[in-house]
Structures are given as C-alpha cells and as structure tokens.
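## tool: complex_structure
## caller: assistant
## args:
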Amino acid sequence: MKEDEVIICRCEDYTLKEVRQAIEDGYTDFEELKRYLRVGMGPCGGRTCLPLIRKELARYKATHPGKISMPTKRPPTQVTTFKAVEKGMEGDNHG
Amino acid sequence: MAELPKTVDIIIIGGGIVGSSLAYELNKRGITDVAIIEKSYLSSGSTGRCGAGVRQQWGLEMNCRLAKGSIDIFENLAEELDYDIEFRQGGYLVMAHDEKQVEQFEKNIELQNSLNIPSRFIDREEAREICPPINTDAFIKATYCPTDGHANPFKTNFAYARAAERLGTKIYKYTEVKDIIVENGQVTGVKTDRGDISSNIVVNASGPWSKQTAEMAGIDIPTYSERHQCLASEPIERLFDTMVISFQSGIYLQQVPHGNFVMGIGEVEEPNHKTESTWQWLEYFTRELLNVLPSFKDLRIVRQWGGSYNRTPDAAPILGEHSKVKGFYNSVGYSGHGFMIGPMAAVCLSQTIAGEKTTVDIAPLSADRFDKGEYVIEPSVVG
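## result:
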C-alpha cells in the first residue's frame, strides 16, 4: 500500500503521505494538526479521518492511540441546511 | 516536554496571536531570550475561535491606526514569515439601517479617510454589485472598504510562533502560570505547574483569562469575557469577496479563501468563560442570516463553535506597562478584535519594551485610564 495513494481525509483530500509530512513538520499536537490541515473540519466532522490520524500520531509518538485525546467534537452531528433550522423553528410554534 | 529555563529576559503568558506576534517583534528588535508560556495548544484561546476578518473601518482613531498598521503588516506577512496565512482583501461592507447610523458612519469615514483608509459610502445598487445575493431591504446605505479582508487565524498564529522560534523564542505548551512574583513593586518571575522561571518582564497576553492573570500580579483590571458563537458552512463555489457586517444586529459573514462561509452574530450574555455551542444561538443566527441573505436557505452548516471576547468597558485594549507593578505589561482586552489589530499592537508594545519610540502612541491605552475616567470609546463593534 503506497502512502501517497491512501486517502486519509476525504473532505479535504489528504493522503497518508501528506498527513505524515505535516506531523514530521512539527504539527504533532492533535488540535494543532487539525487546524493546520483542516482535517476533521469538513462535512464528515472527522468521523473518517480523525481515528486514522490518531493512529498515525500514536505511531509517531510511540504510544498507544488511546493515550491521545481526540479533538473537540463540534455540532451539528450531521450537516444541516439553514432551511432545516428554520423549519425546526416553525415546528416550535406549532408545538 | 522541554525543561523550563531558570531565567529569561521576557516571559509572555499566552501563545495566541497577541503573544506570538509580540515574541516575534521582540526578537526582531534583538530581544531574543523570550519564553511563551501557553497553558494549552497554540490558538486554543480566542485567536483560534475568532471570525477571521480584518477590518480598518473603526470609529476610534486609535483603533483605525492600529488596524491600518495591521493591514499593512498582513499585506506582506506571508513573505516576511515564510508561511501562507491565506490573507485576502475582499473588502468589508458595513450596513447602515437608519439615519442615526448613517450619521455615525459619516464621522467614521471622515476619520478613516484622514488616516488613508480608503472607505466610502455606497448605495444599495452598488452593494448588490459587490454582494449579489444581499437583500437590499435589510439596510438603507452601506460603507465599504476594499482593502479590509481575511486571514487564517490558525495559520497566522502558527506562522508568528514558528518565525519567533527561529529567532530565539522558546514556546512551552501545556504549561500553566499559577502565580506571578512581585517584589517591592517589581515583577521578578512566575510560578508554573512545571516549575518557576525568573524574569524582570512578564507580559499578560492571556486573552480570555486576562483578569485572572493580572490578579496573580496583584492588579485589578476591568476586563471580562463573554461567549460569542460562530459557524462555518460547507465550502462552495465563490459567491462574493466582501465581508458583510451590521453593528445593529451584530451579524458578520464572509466566504473565506477555502470556500466556506464563516459567520457569526453577537448575543447578550452575562460575563462568562463558556465556549460551548447552543441551538438557541443557531436559531437566532439563522433568522438574521436569512433576512440579509434569503438565498442561503440551502447552504449547509458543517461546524459551530464558541469563543470569548475579552472586553474592556470602552472596547479598546489595555496595552503597556502597568503603573503599579514595574515590568508587568498588559496586552489584553481586545474586545473581539485582537486578531485584526494584534500585529500592529505587537509592534508598538515591542517598541515600548525595547525603549524605542512607538509607531502609534499607545499611552492612552494604559490601564490607568479607567481610574481617571479617560475612556477611549469605540462606537463600532460587532456583537
């Protein structure tokens, strides 16, 4: 498996090679790495990429992935349109 | 983690835009023995949570000068720091909703133009040319400055920090200052959760925690924090370049170079340190957004977050050495615009510390102004 052919972040289109490069460049803090690459900040909310990146960080730091805490999760749980929010408010009025 | 030094020339508490840009500017002036003490990661405070806009359309001369100076710095910063900070000048469109605001904006524009800030009034027709989807019934007139814009707060923060490190600054993350030592009216060092460091100069650049940090040095400053929430949309094709804001509703929105819209609105809350997101805010924001941009109904929200404005009673920062504790400097209370005026404030504070004449006279921003009643009130703050 070539590291430049493995897509780690589908929202931002980053390969394993690019993620490893960012870690090598010193972005070894998970929160900083997220903000540097925007991984976990796309429509998937980090569901795909963040667990994979945590493993990479653990490998780099020679520790167990469980020792590396995940970045803050942000709402919404699922991408939502403003129309849906508006509709929810109308629902409030009827409820 | 790197061991803490026993002694340094300058300790900066806080590694956000304020602390990192100050370290860099000090290093540039030959003061290289600088330590930044950051209790979490870089950009964990207000910088990484801000709305990412940079504007010069202020109503207070001091803020205009600091903001214009910062834009001049931002224009060359990527090259200077060798880091792409995604700076883009797409302008700021400020909506006026009634004649009273138009009157205030007339004064603002006169002031801004006298300081070489190229802002001007535009009518609703021109507003629509600049921002095609805007609801022109939502305002009566607007001001526009084409050289205002955006920069990526994370990358600007990292860029300054890395440039400072190359020049000698040491950054100690996940290290928290627990106390500040003052002897006979002179600061002599700090105690952290990882050990003590002595230094005759300590700078409070702790953003949301500015008041608590000052208290450790026995100083009471009138800053307080309040939550402001933002959100980001999915990235879409480029719709318009300008930031759109209103001082009345407190809404602001802008499509950043990546393609997402970053948007927010101020909400009145008691002072607090909360950063959680709320659905009540999302509903409140949605109402205001769809009034200004009705076609945004189908835009998708991908992320919502909160951060702190660290406010002062007059919405201008506290900048400079404190009169009661020698060697203790504040660079705090930016009231929601620390990211945009931080670069120039750092230049001026580094000049003060280096004993040089400051580019902008920051003497009126001393903490003493509140005791003397010499407020420098900023009339044009979002939120």
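## assistant note: The longest helix of chain A spans residues 49-61. The CA atoms of residues 9 and 49 of chain A lie 5 Å apart. Handing back to user.
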